[in-house]
Amino acid sequence: AVPAHLGQAEQHDVLPDLEDVEQVGLVQPGDEQARRLPKLWVGFVFAALYFVAIPIEAVIRPDAFKEEHPFGFFVVFFVAGWFYWLFCVYRYHQIMNSIPGYRHPISENAAVARHFIPLYNMYWTFRWADKIAVFVNWRAQRNLMAGAIPGALVFLGALAGRIFDSGLGLLVLFGAGIYISRQMKKAFSSPPVPDS
Q: Taking a C-beta distance cutoff of 8 angstroms, is the pair 174, 40 a contact?
């Protein structure tokens, strides 16, 4: 259903193409899906532990940072944070696949596994985020989420983690997660889309 005040040209700009949304019956997600969204604070805790571990590691083992590939607790916290991010991606797609009456085009396993394909993973961050945005915009019946925003944040987070600082990368990744979760919650609280 499109608001009556929108003209035909505006309607096309507001709603995603029906080809992108496969509707089977009446979709009525709600509080259940919103409760299942990943707890992003856990990721921020890993990032904080990473930043706390670096000076502690420098005091305990000052020579550790002179190595080409230093290893310490900060690396453990970064790896744990990265795997928790992959769990969050898994959970987003698990929720999307469990919505009654909605056929999400990406399985939760594929959503995570494709992050490990070199070069393709750069494209993949945009692809899966865009498919979540298609659902959010359809469910809300308005342009609520741009898939390029979380895709760009995930890409920048991975890039920042690789080039600048791993903890900074985690902060950007979980920032993208906040955006995704917020938009999904808004979509879940929207009135159900009637069967067409």
A: yes
Cα→Cα distances 118→41, 93, 163, Å: 28, 21, 16
Which residues lie below 8 Å from residue 135, measured CB to CB, with a gap of 6+?
A: 21, 96, 99, 102, 104, 187
Cβ atoms within 10 A of the Cβ of 117, count? Answer: 11
- Rounded to two decimals, the pTM is 0.79
pLDDT in tens, 62-85: 776 666 556 677 788 888 999 999
